[in-house]
């Protein structure tokens, strides 16, 4: 398991408005390592392909009834 660095942005204080939320999201995004993003994209892609194949099989077999 990889050791991922913790975010330095405080997460327990209240957010005042949408602009502050936007800034916090930007700050957190900038702190993400590219390898975390790449891994998430790969995992999502594999899961999507798996689900797509299952749905395609279900559709093709149900059309035969």
Overview features:
single chain, 65 residues, mainly alpha
Write the layout of secondary structure elements.
Elements: H1 18-31, H2 34-62
What does this structure look like?
The chain is mainly α and 65 residues long. The protein has a domain at 20-58. Helices cover 66% and strands 0% of the residues. It is built from two helices and no strands. It has helices at residues 18-31, 34-62. The longest helix is centred in the last third of the chain and has 29 residues, at 34-62. The protein is elongated.
Concise structural overview:
The protein has 65 residues and is mostly helical.
Q: How many strands, which pairing sense, and closed or not: the largest β-sheet? A: none
**Structural class based on helices, strands and sheet pairing:** mainly alpha
Distance between the termini: 46 Å
Q: Which geometry do the CA atoms define?
A: elongated
Number of DSSP helical runs: 2
Order of helices and strands: HH
Mean pLDDT: 79
How large a portion of the residues is in β-strands, by DSSP E? under 5%
Percent of residues in helices: 55-70%
Low-pLDDT windows of residues: none
Kindly state the number of beta strands: 0
Work out the radius of gyration: 20 Å
């Amino acid at each position: 398991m990889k050791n991922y660095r913790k975010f330095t942005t405080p997460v327990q204080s209240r957010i005042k408005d949408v602009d502050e939320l936007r800034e916090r999201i930007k700050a957190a995004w900038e702190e993400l390592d590219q390898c975390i993003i790449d891994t998430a994209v790969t995992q999502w892609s594999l899961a999507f392909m798996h689900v797509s194949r299952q749905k395609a099989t279900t559709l093709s077999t149900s059309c035969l009834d």
